[in-house]
Amino acid sequence: MSLPVRKTFTRREYFALEGASDTRYEYLDGEIVAMSGASLAHNRIVLDTAGSLNNQLRERGCEVFVTDTRVKLDARNYVYPDIAVVCGQLMAVVEGGLETLLDPTLLIEVLSPSTEAYDRGEKFKRYQALASLREYILIAQDAPRIEVYTRQADDAWRYAVAVGMEAAAALSSVGVTLTLSEVYRRVTFEA
Question: Less crowded by CB within 10 Å, the N or C end of the chain?
Answer without folding.
Answer: C
